[in-house]
UniProtKB/TrEMBL annotation:
Species this chain originates from: Leptolyngbya sp. NK1-12
UniProt entry keywords in alphabetical sequence: Signal
Keyword Signal appears in the UniProt entry: yes
Gene3D superfamilies: E3 ubiquitin-protein ligase SopA (2.160.20.80)
Name of protein: Pentapeptide repeat-containing protein
Recorded superkingdom: Bacteria
Pfam families named among the record's database cross-references: Pentapeptide
Residues annotated as signal peptide: 1-28
InterPro entries, alphabetized: 5peptide_repeat, Pentapeptide-BTB/POZ_domain
Transmembrane feature ranges: none
Stored PROSITE patterns: PROKAR_LIPOPROTEIN
Length: 169
């Protein structure tokens, strides 16, 4: 081969190996939504605005995940770990969040109408302007939670620890 043909061949092989490496890397990393649905583990994932309605996410690990604006209507997050998760403006109507850990989570402006939050851990959570109409908060820990402008019409607060530490009877 001539020297120019050798150089062209080497560049071509280098380019081909680079493209192959990129292809393998992109296949090896599932998208966050796919990872969450298959493994039920996606801490620190960006799931902003995702449609996860009716998803079966019992005991899912979503600590520090960004779920702002996500559609989680009717989702089963029973026993899920959502500490410090961003759920701002998320749609959680009818979601099952019983026994979920949501300490320091941002649920401001979230729609939690008729959600099941029984025994949920919401210590220090931001529920500013959240809609909790008809929500079940029985035995939930809301100590140090922010409830400014939250709608609690028809919510069940029996046994709940309120932000001031009082237990609702």
């Amino acid at each position: 081969m001539k020297p120019n043909q050798n150089i062209i061949k080497q560049y071509f092989l280098l380019l081909l190996s680079g493209l192959t490496a990129l292809s393998i890397a992109s296949c090896a990393q599932p998208k966050p939504q796919e990872r969450l649905l298959s493994e039920k583990k996606c801490p620190k994932c960006d799931l902003q605005g995702m449609d996860l309605s009716q998803a079966q996410l019992e005991k899912a690990e979503l600590n520090n995940a960004n779920l702002s604006g996500a559609n989680l209507t009717g989702a089963n997050l029973n026993g899920g770990l959502l500490d410090s998760a961003n759920l701002q403006s998320a749609d959680l109507r009818g979601a099952n969040l019983s026994s979920a850990g949501m300490g320091m989570a941002d649920l401001s402006q979230a729609n939690l109408t008729n959600a099941n939050l029984q025994n949920a851990y919401l210590r220090g959570a931001n529920l500013t302007a959240a809609d909790l109409t008809g929500a079940n908060l029985e035995n939930a820990d809301l100590s140090a939670a922010k409830l400014d402008q939250a709608k609690l019409d028809g919510a069940n607060l029996k046994g709940a620890i309120l932000p001031d530490g009082q237990i609702q009877k």
